[in-house]
């Protein structure tokens, strides 16, 4: 069964443009236990919304999990894991945090309820709604 997620990155650290250029990238550096548990729950084929945090605060594209959790090479602590994700297309119309907050249909989104969480689950209905709203250019 496919699951859906939202992953956050500061564009100054790692941007959507870099994800597209690199195509497949390990999602490293997560140091929050709940986010780590979410990474550990990701399965090959799951899809994640790629969110630019801090400066842009918008969903800009979609990635697919292509490798399940393994030890994060950026940490010496074996408790931390990462997954590999592959670019699956940009949003023609990035969706801002302000738009998300203003949309009653998205009031249960973890992005709003746990705003500091860098890896969060997304309900299928919310994923479908957001990808339609953002006019996702699906690339498989």
TrEMBL record:
Residues 4-132 form the EVE domain. Pfam families: EVE. This is EVE domain-containing protein. It comes from Aristophania vespae. InterPro entries: 5hmC_binding, EVE_domain, PUA-like_sf, THYN1-like_EVE.
